[in-house]
Amino acid sequence: HNTRLTLNICFSYSSEQEMCDAVSTVTSSCQYGQLSPDDIDEEMLTRSLYTLDCPPLDLLIRTSGETRLSDFMLWQCVESYISFLRPYWPDFSLWQLLWVVLD
């Protein structure tokens, strides 16, 4: 069993929607008295994201030759290494992954 790596593949995903959901969760907790507005901080919002149970993002690989994130894991990749590669996802190979990791 793999206990050292986490691979997230996100389909039909919007970072904008994820952040809205996180803010909605936090504000609902304030409305119901479970949380004080003074308790809201970066860590609180981070714990409210879809990636709650995932380790911090170390590497984000964007395939297809695009050099933009396109509303993809914007909050999570703030301190990660981002690699933009030409091949489309189906053509992405283990060798390209090794190249990125060793770079």
Provide the structure class: alpha+beta
Tally of contiguous helical segments: 3
Average pLDDT value?
A: 90
β-sheet strand percentage: 5-15%
Q: What is the alpha-carbon Rg in Å?
A: 16 Å
- Low-confidence segments, given as residue ranges, are none
SSE order in H/E notation? HHEEH
Quick take:
This protein has helices at residues 15-31, 42-46, 94-102, and strands spanning 59-62, 81-84.
Could you please describe the fold and organization of this structure?
With 103 residues, the protein is α+β, with helices and mostly antiparallel strands. Helices cover 30% and strands 8% of the residues. Strands 1-2 form a two-stranded parallel sheet. 3% of the residues are buried. The model has no long low-confidence stretch (mean pLDDT 90).
Tell me the layout of helices and strands.
Blueprint: H1 15-31, H2 42-46, E1 59-62, E2 81-84, H3 94-102
Parallel strand pairs: 1-2
What are the main properties of this structure?
two-stranded parallel sheet
